[in-house]
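Assess this:
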Amino acid sequence: MFVPAYAIATGGLLPQPVALPAGIVVVVTGALYFADREMKTADNFFRGFPALWNVVAFYLFLLKPMPALAAIIVVALAVLTFVPFKFLHPLRVVRLRALNIAALTLWSLLALIAVLRDLAPGPWVAGGLVVIALYFLGVGLTEKH
């Protein structure tokens, strides 16, 4: 969690006054999340935002939102770390497992393409990555708590 915190704080993604505090928030929320013994539900979903800060950093560098929006995203995800909603673990959740693994495989391929193209892969690849991220989020939100 230190590497994505450093990347988010120093990558020019956020307004300068909030960059260092945001990096600290990433490290602290990640540490608290991983220290939580109830971070997974009985049906293997993550409870709350699962401190996937490396993925957040990837999307911020890929999509390059306006710095203020990037800061709002970081703060919102930090808050969601403590909100008890379900977030998909694509390998461990039984419901829709084949589809989840297919989506993860496609995500991996698209992410590789994005990296090979210096995080400027074009709208089809970036759009596909966004759709898959929304799918992963949506599956958990449709589950009963």
Summary: The two ends are 27 Å apart (CA to CA).
